[in-house]
Design brief:
Helices cover 36% and strands 23% of the residues. By secondary structure, it is α/β, with parallel strands linked by helices. The chain has one domain: Ribonuclease Z/Hydroxyacylglutathione hydrolase-like (Metallo-beta-lactamase, Chain A), CATH 3.60.15.10. A hairpin with an 8-residue loop joins strand 9 and strand 10. Helix 6 packs antiparallel against helix 7, helix 7 crosses helix 10 and helix 8 crosses helix 10. The chain is globular, with a radius of gyration of 18 Å. The chain starts with a strand and ends with a helix. The protein binds zinc ion. The site of zinc ion has 5 residues, from loops.
Amino acid sequence: MKKTKTFKYEEVEGFAFGSWPFGQPKLFSHVYFVDGLLLDTGHRNMRKDILATLGRLEVNQIFISHHHEDHTGNLQALQQHFKCPTYSSAACIELMKAPPRISFAQWLTWGNRGANFQLEEKEGRVVTTNYQFDIIPIPGHAIDMVALHEAEKGWLFSADLWVYKYIRYFMRAESMYQQIESIKRVLQLDFDVLFCSHNPQLSGGKQKLREKLQFLEDFYGRAADFYHKGYSPAAILKAMGLKEDIGIQLLSTGELSTINMVRSVVRDEKSKMD
Ligand SMILES: [Zn+2]
């Protein structure tokens, strides 16, 4: 089933796209539009609806928060439609030249995307007629991920930095330590609205991010303690009272799992000791 929801908050239009082959979609990818700027492009499995919904907008620049398939699924289609510049971080440009393969679970939920060679690097700031968006690097969930911060308005376009107050799965490449550092960096800024790519929070956004930070710091601290006592990742998972969702682990061939969260802590602790 395919579902599109829209909302408007101040001058920002939000578009949520969800699709799932076996019933109601639970996960939505969000695209935001403000003052001629389109932020991200949604996922491939919603292309028809996305082109129909966004096609009428007067887009004069597109900005990509990071290379994941739910943000870049219609990049090329929208580049062709709007014929405008498309920007991202330098790391995103490199990753999009040969995007990493996605798992079956990701293909079912979002669909794949092709390589892209038309992205241009943007550093520092994205400027529109009425607003200025500072580009804030927020690596961790993805190495190339950035947020956009409109200081006057108190808006933070936070990509996948928040999503929910806790998290149960990591992809293989995620770093918990970097996520913690990124949230701390963002918490220095002034904002109240969290234009999250999956779960927007139109008020109290800062508090939401503090809760996520607390969760990650607790998780990290406990996992690191067990690691330094000599526990293996599997033993740490058990000692923390966590259980793997085998369905998700299998469907994603290990790309998404709880043990990836533990492994990330172990990796981060090892690299601290180097
Ligand atoms: Zn992502």
